[in-house]
């Protein structure tokens, strides 16, 4: 989930840069700001037009505390729209992040492995909804590939041991000599969006959102 800490107030243009929504969705959601519980989180600011004090316009600004409430719950975007995919991933609250490095794997094999992984996670999830985002990157020391991933477990039903068990179905297990699987809880207080940005750094070889 994106944390907004650099400034207090955001205008329409800034909101559209942060969230994967269009103008129509913005206009629909902005209507909620007129409810009594949210009305105190908006203000109108007068600004000069074309740097002229003779022409003034009013722009609505919304306080950062309610931005995620108003604009953060967005359906999975069109995967062909990479800028919106990046916004969506950065505005989703993830539970886990990590890497998986199966030996001698190519992109097509990794895609099949990640499809298998989400099926296995869904078998273990109980009533919880599970979401998986992954991207594929080339290894630095050979011509094979590995995958970065993010997992969202809405009800926190999946413990580390269960997720590792599923990951070990698509990759060799970790040993004292090499790490094939890296898995860590997503701690936003320490990582911010660094974990999601790391997963988003390469779209060249493949990526997907699975549920």
Question: How would you describe what is shown here?
Answer:
The two termini are 18 Å apart. This protein is an alpha+beta fold and 211 residues long. The protein is built from eight helices and eight strands; from the N terminus they run E-H-H-E-E-H-H-E-H-E-E-H-E-H-H-E. The protein has two domains: 9-74; 90-210, Replication Protein E1, Chain: A. The chain has helices at 12-18, 23-30, 67-71, 82-90, 107-124, 160-167, 188-191, 194-199, and strands at residues 9-11, 42-49, 52-63, 96-100, 130-138, 145-153, 181-185, 207-210. A hairpin with a 2-residue loop joins strand 2 and strand 3.
Number of domains: 2
Overall CATH class of the largest domain: Alpha Beta
Structural class: alpha+beta
On the 0 to 100 scale, the average pLDDT is 89
């Amino acid at each position: 989930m994106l944390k907004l800490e650099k400034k207090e107030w955001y205008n329409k243009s800034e909101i559209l840069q942060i969230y994967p929504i269009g103008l129509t969705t913005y206009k629909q959601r902005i209507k909620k700001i007129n409810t009594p519980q949210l009305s105190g989180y908006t203000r109108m600011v007068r600004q000069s037009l074309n740097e002229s004090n003779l022409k003034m316009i009013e722009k609505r600004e919304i306080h950062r505390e309610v931005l995620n409430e108003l604009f953060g719950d967005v359906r999975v975007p069109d995967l062909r729209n990479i800028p919106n995919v990046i916004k969506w991933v950065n505005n989703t609250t993830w539970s886990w992040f990590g890497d998986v490095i199966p030996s001698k794997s190519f992109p097509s094999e990794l895609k099949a492995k990640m499809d298998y992984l989400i099926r296995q996670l869904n078998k273990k999830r109980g009533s919880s909804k599970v979401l998986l985002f992954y991207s594929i990157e080339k290894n630095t020391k050979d011509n094979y590939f590995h995958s970065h991933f993010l997992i969202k477990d809405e009800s926190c039903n999946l413990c580390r041991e269960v997720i590792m068990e599923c990951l070990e179905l698509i990759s060799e297990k970790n040993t004292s000599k090499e790490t094939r699987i890296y898995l860590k809880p997503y701690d936003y207080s320490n990582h911010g969006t660094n974990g999601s940005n790391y997963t988003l750094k390469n779209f060249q070889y493949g990526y997907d959102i699975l549920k």
